[in-house]
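can u do me a favor
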């Protein structure tokens, strides 16, 4: 069975554009529903594929990608939208992407507003994110029918040997971004699922306390708000935010 690989997307829908950054074990596909919704409502939407993601080899994320590369991609993506002559640029991120969306609001004057979904900022523990990545890696390898059980176990051991260092580098970056939250003066959307198992929902309240311009939205849902049962309400709330900022 041939598995179609996810692709980055750019949906041209208007002079205002929204950059959408996906999660650690996700792809641009997690942003596609929101992207099409925004396009239908006269906003352009761009979701790049973060380095290492979107392949059938989870080790690519651990070996080829990292916070420095992903931050450079975020900046390059903002430049891409400027080259497309977009007059207003917003940045939103899901989970891992939330770190870089927030960093963009802290550091890049071209971004006028933005926000986060299922953000790891102000989270002390990243062990659940590690566990989720291990589950993701095993699922990806299990879909490769030419792998024997022995080969699958060997690959999982390699993932296990490399995941801690990557999580540590992400956590370090997250802490650095969290320390500058109070500097954000632009409108900031916070979307958080109350039954999120990957990040502590209570941390969203701490982020809201730090960012005086924030709007905090809780949803009766889990982590991936862009595609789970909260996605329709999230889309409506994001559109309202964009139209008023």
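np, heres the sequence
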């Amino acid at each position: 069975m041939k598995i179609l690989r996810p692709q980055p997307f750019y949906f041209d829908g208007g002079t205002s554009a929204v950059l959408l950054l996906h999660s650690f074990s996700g792809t641009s596909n997690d942003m596609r529903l929101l992207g099409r919704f925004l396009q239908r409502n006269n906003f352009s939407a761009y979701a790049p594929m973060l380095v290492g993601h979107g392949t059938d080899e989870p080790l690519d994320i651990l070996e080829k990608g990292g916070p420095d590369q992903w931050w450079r991609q975020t900046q390059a993506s903002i430049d891409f939208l400027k080259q497309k002559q977009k007059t207003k640029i917003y940045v939103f991120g899901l989970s891992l992407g939330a770190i870089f969306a927030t960093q963009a609001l802290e550091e890049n004057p071209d971004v006028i507003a933005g926000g986060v979904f299922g953000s790891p900022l102000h989270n002390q523990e990243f062990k659940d994110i590690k566990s989720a990545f291990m589950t993701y890696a095993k699922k990806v390898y299990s879909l490769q029918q030419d792998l024997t059980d022995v080969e699958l176990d060997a690959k999982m051991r390699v993932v296990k040997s490399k995941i801690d260092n990557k999580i540590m580098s992400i956590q370090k970056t997250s802490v650095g971004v969290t320390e500058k939250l109070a500097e954000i003066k632009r409108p900031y959307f916070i979307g958080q699922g109350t039954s999120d198992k990957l990040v502590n929902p209570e941390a969203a309240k701490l982020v809201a306390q730090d960012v005086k311009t924030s709007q905090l939205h809780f949803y009766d849902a889990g982590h991936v708000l862009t595609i789970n049962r909260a996605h329709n309400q999230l889309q409506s709330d994001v559109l309202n935010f964009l139209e008023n900022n």
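The chain has one domain: 9-243. hope that helps!!
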